[in-house]
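Could you help me review a protein record that somebody else here produced? Do not assume that whoever made the record got everything right. The record follows directly below this note.
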Amino acid sequence: MKEEFEKLAAAGKIEGKHVPALAQLAEAGCCTHRSWGFGRIKTVDTVFARFTIDFPGKAGHPMDLGFAAESLKPVPKDHILARKATDLDAVRHLAAHHIDLIKIVLNSFGGKATTDQIQSVLVPDVISDDWKKWWETAKREMKKDGHFIVPLKKTEAVVYQAQETSLQDRLLADFRKAKGLKARILVVAEILKGISDLKDKAAAANEVIAALNPDIASHQRTQPAVALEAVFARDELREAAGLPAGVDEISVAQIWAQDGIRFGPLIESIPAAKHHRALESFKTAYPEKWVEVFRSALNFVSAKLAKEIVSVLIHDGKLALLKETLAKLINQHTASSELLLWFGRERTEDFVDILGPEVFRAMLTSMERDQFQEKRSNRLRDFILEDQALIVELTSTADIEVVKDLTRALKLSPVFDDMDKRSLLARLVKAHPAVQSLVSGEQTKQEAGLLVSWESLERRRAEYQELVEKKIPANSKEIAIARSYGDLRENHEYKAAKEMQKILMRQKEDLEAALNRARGQDFANASTEVVGPGTIVQVADPATNQTETFTILGAWDSDPDHGIISYLTPIAMALVNRKVGDEVEFELHGSKRRQRIENISAWKTEAATATA
């Protein structure tokens, strides 16, 4: 075709400088345009001096030869795009030979390409389904082959090199150039995956372990989570390489034994895939106290870690102790939103005797607590809204009065907006038609007024003052500043500030409603003839004579560690208006409990005596 283009140039139909570029385009048969993408040259018209090119969405597009010479780039026939255009079936057949196809792709991009680039070229034309599985197989084969460099990070390029390098040399080179212990741990994981293909795995393991030990020692106190993860990697590598135990090395037990180690935060800092290993290592280090540590940590860790802790406890036959811990946290409304998120998702037969309406009450309390403490996680709230069966299952066997009480609590809760609250109430009404009147607006005596201690009333008033005098004005300033940043449609700071404004205004309305209902009391001179607010009640289990003491105070008073409970809690409501010697029976977490009232005394008097 070069002669034809030279004739056109001699005739003045194209410029002479365009002849080499046009000859390359005609020879290649394929090209790319910066706007229209890949194109296939269908015809060369020497009469009208133009190409006819098929672009995506622009089939049979005519293009002047001069314009084509300046705006198109030739695509060689061995390029992956050209191969797809000319013989797609052959390329699809190559997909069964992972390395051969990857080599073509990499050579098409100058010897290297990122995972995203490779995927965009092959999916869906060549690989129409299960790309992830295909790519994992391709990576395993490339790592064994000596011509490919497969990076640890997805954003870095896969490289093809003509000179072959052994897998062991490549992995050790990656380990040597890794910066920081965290990066070295990632390389060790790759070494473990290919350990069976190394030519001298003992030598490789010895080099890696010798380099890891000083890093572990330097991180032991400053970054114990990273050091612990490195010890796991080191010990696993030694075992895989068949090496004997090390001498004078820092062990898992030594890391756990350090002063100031906080169990939950340390494990949370480790990748989730290693949580189970970390828990087992703590068990081994502390065989006498691990159960209590695990039970205590449940209320302070993420839902994912809580699931792992529970799995270990159940596996070791500690289900009864676990249920005791869960029941106490739920009954006292002190369970965290993350623990309740795990519990709500679980809902297995192991916990059927704990699942009940009080679980949902505990969920409301935890979310309200998070909101007042300005914790912005909405994971539990979103789960409650998404799981259509949750609230129905938790109330399925409950007494209708309990369901009514739960309905009132839901109506007053500030954690759901109006639309979401109506959706949840609708689920309750569908399952329990008797609560329809409450949802439609009936007001009860409980809603009309709340008995509260003066101390708790002052705390709520202080919360309200801080809200209206500090938090809301500060939020208004944030909105004003964010608005000054420009386009509100893409202004994330503005959107976040406006969302916070909605939360703060709901808090303000809810606090105002609560303060209007509050009736302050000092609970002095409470009658001790019957149980009521302001009394200290000692009860005993008739079967075991095991005693417990409860101080019953106002609606906002709660200090479970010291036995102080609100008069609105299920236990208090069962005891109120009962005398010494009475036995009360109530349902708690799906099981019947019986308690005998042993003594009733006035809280104000005993408190004054203790102070004196």
Observations:
- The chain has a mean pLDDT of 88.
- The chain has six domains: 2-74, 80-160, 166-287, 296-443, 449-521, 535-611.
- Residues 416 and 439 are 15 Å apart (CA to CA).
- The two ends are 110 Å apart (CA to CA).
